[in-house]
Amino acid sequence: MAERLAFASSMQASTPTRRLIALDRHRVRSRARGFFSLFASSSTETPSSVDPDARPPPRPALKKPHVDGRRQFSDVPDGLASVERIVTDAQVRTFRDSIRGKLLLAPLTKGGNLPFRRLCVSLGCEVTVSEMVFARFALKKNPVELARLRKHDSETLFGVQIATNQITEGVNAGRLAHEAGADFVDLNCGCPIHETWKRGLGAALLKKPRKLERLVRGIADGIPIPLTVKIRLGAGSSEAPAHALAEAVENAGAAAVVIHGRTKEARYTKAANWETIGAIQAERGIPVVGNGDILTRYELNDRMGISNAHAAMVGRGALIKPWIFKEAKEGIDWEPSAEERIAVYLTLCGYFQDHFRADELGKKRYMEFMPWHFGFFCRYRPLPEAMYGEMASRYPLLQTRLGIVAAKEVEGMDGDELPALERLLRCESEEAHARMSEALWDALGSVERAVELFEDIAKDGSLERWEREAEVARRSGRGGDEGMGGGDAIRG
After folding, report:
1. What is the structure's pLDDT at 75?
2. What torsion do the CA atoms of 122, 126, 269, 200 make, to the nearest 10 degrees?
3. Catalytic option among 191, 349, 378, 427
4. Which residue from 57, 125, 140, 276 could staple onto 325, CB 3.0 to 4.6 Å apart?
């Protein structure tokens, strides 16, 4: 006790330097006392007080090492020095040739699930990309992220999109994707949503082209399959960085660069700039895949003519009309009737049943997705080139919020004069989307039964109520993205 009082008084009376010295001495003495008291207590035990048959106390369980993908492999390149790549030049050339002139399905959060990708393949899609996968969580064996690595047997050219800002993390996730059957990996450098941006992922990587170049080079050097990089025109309002970003991606040795023709700030609200995409394609040697505002075959042809891009990618347009791949591949416009569209949606329902199983648990999972898809399916309108081709060349149809106006101009009738089945399929009500999803499940694969169930819904009085509610919402400004507007927060 006396020692403590003496220590305290010396601390108060001394200079700052002396106080620090005194504090250090006090700590040393305290530790010494603790050590010798422990030694003394253990040495006072006599052999007779120890049970010779007693087992030693169990060791405390070791904490599992934290795995975040940064130390999983010792041969991960650092993106600075030149190393011998795992992927070969022949593989990269073959990949580039395989996507030339094709329409790729974009990575779409929630929408890019396996059953929907399978539907797009059945309608002519030849290149598919997974939903965005957070590399760190996949390496921690998160079951949701690992599920996104799965591909269907019908997907002959399948890529996995990863989100990461760490080279080793990207390499390890890329190798994991390869083991799961991916043919290429896509690095997400375009997602504008806050959830991704705040982690330094997605569009946040566009702020520093040199750092992006090191990241891309390191991942491209360390994985056994080609790497593509999806970027936007920039992280801010200026579009000038797009040229530097594309140069960085090319210098890093990526197999292709996918350019979404908007900046991060523009998100999905402004028209995609295909002129800038074309300028980058002209000045760079790397294949450029253009992305943004493709809803029809003639819009695809127009954008490719403007940009001379190596290939094109479609996202929201495919969610609205997944048969856009059929139109692009066959060079024809397909305007399916209500019954034909129900058949397409029934096919998707069947794919969900195959994926989740056709039991109660499977139905619960299915109902998490199918009504969401109807939120896009309901935006479909027939848009013949003769009437909309010139308009589409000036302003994208995805951005015009055509809504029911398209029905009046194309079909020469008011919305109320449309057949009830057609009105139901265009209904924007979430309740309607849930009812139609239930009807598809109950149809048990029969198109005739599905049409019959849809007609019952259209005649029971609910349709008129849903339409009135939608009209009130539009007039009050709560209609959101009615028609074909574009504010959808889709990552990728």
Report:
1. 67
2. 120
3. 191
4. 125
